[in-house]
Amino acid sequence: MIRALLNHRIRGFRTLNIVLGATLLTLAISVNLAKTVAGRERNEIGQVEVDMNRERKRIRLLEAEVAHLEQPERLERLARGHLELGPLAARQEATIDTLSTLAAQHPRPQPVSTVSVAVP
Fold it and tell me: Does residue 31 lie within any of the structural domains?
């Protein structure tokens, strides 16, 4: 029976040769498709790594900018120049117990009244 299957011919070709040829062709196409998909994924991974490196550089730049903007000397200079603020004097310090006394000494600010403007 196996001998008959191995020797059976279709249009001059053994059936076994046709089956093996079709299997070989299918495997070749499958391997080629797998390599193509893997190549695309490799390119995508490379692009993501490039994007990640770019973002890391941007994060380092922003962290350096924050460090510059948060320098105490710079903040003090801005507070003195724009807000006319200075360091606290010892008499300006208070404890939780003295807050109610301080609040009673200073009048509460009144809200600013709004003026309505008639639009013609």
Answer: yes
